[in-house]
TrEMBL record:
EC class of the enzyme, as a word: transferase
Organism: Streptomyces roseoverticillatus
Record domain DUF7134: where: 21-162
Gly residues compositional bias, start-end: 348-360
Transmembrane domains' residue ranges: 22-40, 76-105, 135-157
Database matches in Pfam families: DUF7134, HATPase_c, HisKA_3
Positions of the UniProt region annotated as Disordered: 340-371
Enzyme Commission identifier(s): 2.7.13.3
Protein name as catalogued: histidine kinase
Xref: InterPro entries: DUF7134, HATPase_C_sf, HATPase_dom, Sensor_HK_TwoCompSys, Sig_transdc_His_kin_sub3_dim/P
SUPFAM superfamilies in the cross-refs: ATPase domain of HSP90 chaperone/DNA topoisomerase II/histidine kinase
Domain Histidine kinase/HSP90-like ATPase residue range list: 303-405
GO molecular function, one term: kinase activity
Recorded catalytic activity of this chain's protein: ATP + protein L-histidine = ADP + protein N-phospho-L-histidine
Length: 407
């Protein structure tokens, strides 16, 4: 018998035999026929067995071998039938062993135990009903039991081996699927990181450009010195925006970059510079910095606070031009770091950065993606804190957040 005989019909039932299956079936039939012929030859030596019975044994043994072609479709019924037949017709013993092997390969242990137990019981009965003239009863029984146990053990080994191969194959497929999902997640995170970096770095600069460009268009009769100063600010802001864009793209292209790269990242110590930059753009910003040693704030925490203030100032410049913006930062290692940016309702329409946004042409406001505040909440959550926003009772707007004081 071939160790690869049959397929596990429980897992993958087959509707047609392949070349391999035909070869295995022919080998099993030949093996069963050899065992049946040997049993018939042993019975032929017994003078008490009439020739008619010997002929009937050979016919039944041949029919049992032919019945093995159905062993893949009905393994258990065939095995039970052949066990009963082989008990009274020894030439069918070979076919019975093949059928029991098939059950051991294709069926779970409970079914194998039931069929195997029936086969074991049949061996002493066969030795008593149709004794071998060359073997004593105990030797014949022990030989039959040993053959049945060997066939069952072999079949269960083949089954376990096939299950192991299937398990390894499924595990490999699962690993490939997980690797693909991890790659897709990495791509999604990379896209989110790119969007976040682009928004944080460029939105602030571009809003400053809109403010100064709107001021030039709003006041075409401004003194040449003021026009030159505004044009210089526009030029410097555009240059800085291009530089920061180049740096961000360089960082994102770097293999294994985590968003930090070699580009210096802003911290809480750079907050005053950010506020001063907004003041130069014409905003009225009051900074209430209550953290005595800003340099002691962990870089990750200070960077998140910086981004919160930056986004809040950008939004105030767009939607509340002319209003005084209040920035308050306080905290300690024990209490964490709290930040709040508040502005009252915006100024008059038409002012640079006025109500409804800074204007280039009358009524044209600075566009926004609407995702900045959502991104702030995500940043704060990743840092273990929180960030919220909403209108104030007087019609203004407030952005507030809290972050743990930790590296």
């Amino acid at each position: 018998m071939d160790g690869t005989a049959g397929a596990m019909t429980e897992e993958r039932p087959r509707t047609a035999r392949g070349l391999r299956d035909w070869a295995v079936d022919v080998l099993c039939l030949a093996l069963a026929a050899v065992i049946g012929i040997l049993a018939a030859e042993a019975l032929r030596k017994d003078p008490d067995v009439p020739p008619v019975l010997l002929a009937a044994d050979q016919i039944v043994g041949a029919a049992a071998c032919v019945a093995l072609w159905t062993r893949r479709r009905w393994p258990v019924p065939l095995a039970v039938a052949l066990i009963v037949v082989s008990t009274f017709v020894p030439p069918a013993s070979g076919a019975m062993l093949v059928a029991v092997f098939t059950v051991a390969v294709h069926r779970p242990f409970r079914t194998v135990a039931a069929v195997g137990g029936l086969a074991l019981i049949s061996e002493p009965v066969q030795a008593a009903v149709r004794p071998d003239p060359d073997l004593p009863f105990l030797v014949a029984t022990a030989t039959g039991v040993l053959l049945v146990l060997t066939v069952i053990g072999w079949g269960m080994f083949v089954r376990s081996r096939r299950q192991l191969v299937l398990s390894l194959r499924e595990r490999a497929l699962r690993a490939e699927t997980e690797a693909r999902l991890r790659a897709e997640q990495a791509q999604r995170l990379a896209r989110e990181r790119i969007a976040r970096e682009m928004h944080d770095v460029l939105a602030h600069r571009l809003s400053l450009l809109c403010v100064h460009a709107g001021a030039l268009e709003f006041r075409p009769d401004a003194p040449p010195a003021e026009v030159a100063r505004a044009a210089g600010v526009i030029r410097d802001s555009a240059h800085q925006a291009l530089e920061e864009l180049r740096e961000v793209i360089g960082v994102l292209r770097a293999p294994g970059a985590d968003g930090g790269g070699d580009r210096p990242q802003p911290t809480l110590a750079a907050l005053e510079e950010l506020v001063e930059e907004s003041r130069q753009a014409g905003m009225a910003v009051v900074l209430d910095q209550r953290v005595t040693d800003a340099a002691s704030v962990p870089d990750a925490t200070g960077r998140t606070v910086y981004r919160i203030v930056q986004e809040a100032l950008t939004n105030a410049r767009k939607h509340a031009g002319g209003a005084e913006v209040s920035v308050r930062v306080e905290g300690s290692p024990e209490e964490g770091l709290a930040v709040a940016v508040t502005n009252p309702p915006g100024g008059e329409p038409g002012e640079p950065g006025g109500k409804g946004g800074s204007t280039g042409r009358s009524g044209a406001s600075v566009p926004g993606s609407g995702q900045g505040l959502i991104g702030l909440a995500e940043r704060a959550a990743l840092a273990g804190g929180r960030c919220g926003h909403g209108p104030t009772p007087d019609g203004g707007f407030r952005v507030h957040g809290w972050l743990p004081w930790r590296p």
